[in-house]
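Many introductory courses stop at the sequence. We go one step further.
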Amino acid sequence: MNEIDLKRIKKMVAKKKKARKKKKAIVDVPQDKVFWVHDGPVLKNLEDLANELSKMSFETFHYHVNPYKNDFANWIKEVIGDAKLADEIRKLKTRKSTSRHVKEKIKQLNG
């Protein structure tokens, strides 16, 4: 095996490791812990939440996030297990800023 082949193999192994890590970063929650959005969609993970936040209506967002509660922060803390992200988004009041924070967390997880 020559040096070029060895470099190519190392590169392929590194790519596969990164792909495996990416798959592990966003894990679906158990079926009994999914998040049911008020107007119907079911969320299984942070990527689902980010996607739904990007198209969610003002009314739906404010059904889940208002002065009395933040259902998304509660789900993230209690089910996803990310207290830091939950505390960060609990302070946010808009769909756009919440979406941005969740997307940033996904980006961090995916490396």
